[in-house]
Amino acid sequence: MSSEVIGRLITDFNNLNEKCVHLVEENQNLKQQNQNLQQENQILKENLQEKDKQLEKFQERNKQYEKLEQHVKNLEKQKSDELQQLQQLEIISQNLQNNLGILGSDKAKKNDIKITEKKMFLTNKYDERKKEIMNKPPIINLEIFSGSLSSFNESIDIDTEKSKLYSDIKLVVGLDFGTTSSAFFINIVTKESSGWLSRQKDTILVYNYDYSEVVACGYINKCPRFNIVELFKLHLGSLPDNLKPKLPIEYKRAIADYLKEIRKDIKSEVARRMPEANYFEDVLLVFTVPAEYSEEDKDIMRECIYNAKLIKSKSSEKLQFITESEAAAIYCMENELPNYNLLSIGSKIGRLLLLTGGSTIDITTHKIVGNNPLQLSEVTELIRDFCGSTFIDDEFIKLLNEKFETRAIDLLKKSHYNKFRYIVFEFCQRVKKSFAGDDNTKFSYTLDVEEKIPDLLQYVSEETKKIMEANNWLIDIEYNDIKKLFDPIIDRIIRLIHIQLLNNKETCSAMFLVGGFSGNKYLRRRIEQEFHHAVKITSPLDAISRGAADYGLLLLNPNLNKLGNNDISSSILKYTYGIQFTSDWKDDDPPNRKTSDRKISKFISLVKRGTEVTSDQDFTFNFKPESGQTHAKFEVYYTNEKSATYIDEPGMKLLGVLNVDLPDAHLDNRSINFGLTFDPNKITAFTRNELNGQKFVTKFCYQ
Q: Is the N end or the C end of the chain the one with fewer CB atoms within 10 Å?
């Protein structure tokens, strides 16, 4: 075979090979396109399902609106009928007057006083009845939620409805979703309720290489191919942005993915203990949230719970929220107070709840205000600070920076984050949870760098490398070093407790340490040393999840309700509330704040933060409209400060606006009362026209 033939064969082979490569690439492209189309198809399906749900909601709202419209028509007809009756009464009154007028003058004079009294009585009764009917609003009970009509109720008792709603509940699950660890407790609904606790699980997720699948939950796998996601709860609430961790995925998805794993545990326990139970029909879920959560935060959490398939629908009534402090209060009231003989009303019945979360410390003081049944009232403002157990992790990281230089640790985090987080996780398991801070100076922790984080070796400086080689790449963290990690955090917590006790106007007799960090022996030891002379101290385990489950049982039996509208009979405002008010500028006012028409706007405080309020209290402000004024706009502001002068001061925020119509503009004697009331879930703003009884009302969510 000639070289020319061989050359052609080689060329043909190469051409065929290139075509084959191109075909393989085209095949891969087609596979990718097919995969993309499948994903798009799935997204379209989900969008279509969502639209179907929205259509169902719209149809339901339309039906509710039709019922409402018919009810209003019935009321209008009723009002018309009553007006006709009054008109007939007026005709009778006029006939009576005419008949009386034809009597003889002498007889008329004798009875003049009596006739006048009768006439005035009938006329006044008529005017009163007419005014009552004309001003009587329709008797409609509406609950407005997120700007949409969510329920229609004409005259149904709420407790009865709730009792009917929960009549088939067989199990109550109290779920404490924490920053660093979570737990749930299940109560069986029987005459003598019993329950069981699932093991606690750290709030940690481990994803595969592309975050498409959760491969582990509750612990950290040091495999470098996996990705760790944690502290995602910190993206809800008022944590400053600079303290919120950066996440590789959207925080709502991380929360939902973690709750999906919790759901598996809950359903497994339910199936094992009560196989006949239908989860969506027979289970009431009570979910704990921090006291600082706004309504928006709760809505986001509800969405995540729904996406985790812990509830059947997003608006399900079988999900109830309770704050962590209230849940802990219920448990301690039922199970701890009897141990201290604190159930009598009178002296020394206050108690302090110290909630130690993953990143925050919440301190609230509660007082028993009723004994039969037991009732609690929050009597001092909440103290919240960012000095929880995760800050001890930060102290450990600072120690690593000192040992290996910050540059080396930063490079390790950037290139091998999983291994870095694993050594922090191991420190938490072996040191943070078990360190007692007693005089046992033999307690220590040894980190083998070559075994645990060999990748760090390539980043350390030559000087550090020589030192570490001399120590066989072992870091011995002795007792005093560990103690120094804890002391700054615990010192800060103790200062907060002193402030809280100083603010309390009554003696606090018992202190309950609840939450994940409260199990640390050193924290408890330091607090006992500092406060044992003033209060009794205990650390009830799982108080939050157990209290949430107990609250669920109270919801099922309104007669035993110890929270809701009865138990927390009063609350402490976290902010100062007031309105913007414009008045005439005066010589002692700042010149730069004078408007072109010589006016000045100031903040008028109605109620200060730290004030104990009940739902039947009104905080009012009276103003006189100017002559010719036909409209007023009340802007409600709130601030974390106890006093303020202007609405543009730092920390001042707009809560909402109430617009008011002002009739009778020609009158000069108009008087308007503006006020705020504070219900457990809503703030009500209202105005009352003292001249004609006109009233405007709107509701704002707590922020």
A: N
